[in-house]
Write a structure and sequence with these properties.
By secondary structure, the chain is of the alpha/beta class. About 40% of the residues lie in helices and about 20% in strands. The protein contains 15 helices and 16 strands. The chain has an eight-stranded parallel β-sheet with strand order 4-14-13-12-11-10-6-5. Strands 1-2-3 form a three-stranded antiparallel β-sheet. A three-stranded antiparallel β-sheet has the order 7-8-9. Helix 8 runs parallel beside helix 9. The longest helix is centred in the last third of the chain and has 27 residues. The chain is globular, with a radius of gyration of 20 Å.
Amino acid sequence: MSCLIVEATDGYARTGCVTTRRGTFRIPAFMPVGTHGGVRALHPDEVRECGAEIVLSNAYHLALRPGLDVVERAGGIHGFMGWDGPILTDSGGYQLVSLAGAARIDNGGAVFVSPYDGTRLRVTPEEAVSIQSRLGADVIMCLDQPVAFGAGAGAAAAATARTHRWAQRCVAAHPGDGALLFGIAQGGFDEGTRRESAAFIAALGFDGNAVGGLSVGEPIAVMEAMARASTEELPEDRPRYFMGLGTDEELLTMVGMGIDMFDCVVPTRLARNGTALTADGRLSLRNSVFRDDLRPIDDACACQACARFSRAYLRHLFTAGEILAHRLVSIHNITHLSRLMRAAAAAIREQRFEAFRREVSDRLRGREPAGPRLN
């Protein structure tokens, strides 16, 4: 039985819910990233108030620090980080690119050098599943091997073949403990290889399927073409997850392709740099133009930042070096993306998704100042 219930569709876009052993979350869904077991600077209750129903943590980092034994003694990752909803954990495959100089890959798996103390961690597909199971994740990701944009065809083909072998081993290693297991389609930046990989992963019968190895610096047109090639080969009765995407226009483009789940560090990373997301584009709150701007970030948003504080106050906090600035803008940015996903779901139910997507794009590009309001 599929964990996905589709309640409405409009073209390829769909809305509904995904059920995990720890509860249900609505789709389309944006998952805030808590790499080390916490969304940066925010209390779990604040993350929930932002509209998030599922969060992401990184099994690789948690296995290194604080260590699986500590998390297990705390009752698993939910008890450790104080989040009572679904949690998806990434296996560490992305670190094979982001920490390429500190990882060695062979057909058996990968050896990572800890960025914290220099110790070595051997991760096989079986170990990746075991680590995530011991953490208590509700959605477990297979170990995969993405490639950097610009990698040669031979390197991409070898990494994709290895990803397929690792996926088979992850299926065999899954303990069947109620956690969902998601496969990851790779394929580099060749459309044919993308399709072949997605078809191979789909045939393994995962609970859900991810499109990996994109949004890593390639042109947007390339990203969209590769995502479409992958998605067209993935089954409709399973959730689809685009890994590492968090900008308004691209999120809605992918929702329009039938992708359901997204994660990204963008909302919190931008917040730490003083940038707020709005329906009219990004606001760089450190700029002097906001010194005496007493409007909220977004007058249509009811988050803690917008309900109580002005742009001028937030700029003051940033210039004064107050951590409250990071917290408030993080709350706003996560709320903004959660609202965007809810508005997309409403548009799908009302059979107006494509018009909604165009309106959002036009407003961001300054072509439609009246634009839609996110509810």
